[in-house]
Amino acid sequence: MKTVWLIFKVLIVSLFIVSMIITGGIIYYKKNYEQPEIKKEISKKIETQTVELQEGNVQIIEEINDWRLILVNSENPLPENFAVELANFDYSRQFDSRAINELVTMIKTMKAEGVKNIWVQSAYRSPEYQENLFNNKVKEFINMGKSPEEAERLASKWVNKSETSEHNVGLAVDFNNVKVDFEKTREFAWLIENAENYGFVLRYKKEKKDITKVNYEPWHWRYVGVEHAKEMNRLDMCLEEYVEYIKTKNTNNKKY
Ligand SMILES: [Zn+2]
C-alpha cells in the first residue's frame, strides 16, 4: 500500500514538473517568437494611421477652392463678383476678417519678443485705389521720358493694375517703408523665421521673379494659412508654383 502511495506521489510531482516545463516553454516561446508578430501588428497600425494622416493632409491642401490660396496676379485678375468681408486693423487699414487675428497675433508676438520696429503700411486696397496707384506709377515713368507703353510696362513691375493685386483680395500686407532695405532689418529676419507659424509667406522672392513677374518685395507678405505657408517654404515654391502643384496633386489623386 505504501509503495502504491509513493508511486502516486512521484507521479503527481513529476506531472507537476512536466506541466511547469511546458508552461515555461510556452511563455518562453511567446516572449521570443510571438512578440515580433505583435510588433508587426503595431507597426501595421502605425502605418495605417500615417497613411490616413497623409490622406487627411492631402484633403486639406487638395482643396483648391480654399479661399486662402486665391491666386491674383497679372494673368489672374480678381474673380467676378469677388467679395470679401473686411475687419479693421486700425483706423485706416483693413484685412480679411478670417485672417486678421493671425496678422494681429504675429505682430504682437514679434513686438513682445523685442522686435518692435514694425508697422503695417498697406493692407487691403479697393480696386479703385489700386487703379490710382497704378496710374500714378505710370505717370512717374512718363515724367522720366518713357513712352506710355513703356511706362505702363515698367509700372506693372512695381504696382499691379487694378484687380490684379493681392491687396485687392485683403490677404496681403506691406510692412514699414515698402523699401528693399527692409530685408536688412531684424523685423524681416524675424518674419523669415516665424511668419509661417501665423500663415504668412514672403510673396515675391528674388529668385522667383521670372515666375511671379513681380520684382523682389521683402515688405510684401501674403496670408495663405499655416499649413500652406509651411508647405510652400518646405518646397520652396511661390504661390504660382504651389497652386499648380496642388492642381497636379489633385489630378493624380483622382486616378486612384
Ligand atoms: Zn504689397
The CATH class assignment of the largest domain is Alpha Beta
Broad shape: elongated
Strand count, sense and closure of the main sheet? 4 strands, antiparallel
If you compute it from the alpha carbons, what radius of gyration comes out, rounded to the nearest whole angstrom? 32 Å
Q: In whole angstroms, how far apart are the ends?
A: 81 Å
Strand order of the largest sheet: 3-4-6-5
> Care to count the β-strands?
6
Which small compounds were modeled alongside the protein? zinc ion
CATH architecture label name of the largest domain: 2-Layer Sandwich
The arrangement of helices and strands along the chain is HEEHEHHEHEHEHH
The percent range for strand residues is 5-15%
**What percent of residues adopt helix (DSSP H or I)?**
40-55%
Number of helices: 8
Task: Look up the CATH topology of the largest domain.
Answer: Muramoyl-pentapeptide Carboxypeptidase, domain 2
**Please, how many domains?**
2
Structural class: alpha+beta
Low-pLDDT residue intervals, each spanning 5 or more residues: 31-63
**What's the pLDDT, averaged over the residues?**
83
Quick summary:
By secondary structure, the protein is α+β, with helices and mostly antiparallel strands. Helices cover 54% and strands 8% of the residues.
3D structure, described in words:
- The chain contains 8 helices and 6 strands; from the N terminus they run αββαβααβαβαβαα.
- The chain is α+β, with helices and mostly antiparallel strands and 256 residues long.
- The chain folds into 2 domains: 34 residues; 149 residues, 2-Layer Sandwich (Muramoyl-pentapeptide Carboxypeptidase, domain 2).
- A 4-stranded antiparallel sheet has the order 3-4-6-5. A two-stranded antiparallel sheet has the order 1-2.
- The protein is elongated.
- The relative contact order is 0.11.
- The structure holds zinc ion.
- Zinc ion binds next to strand 4.
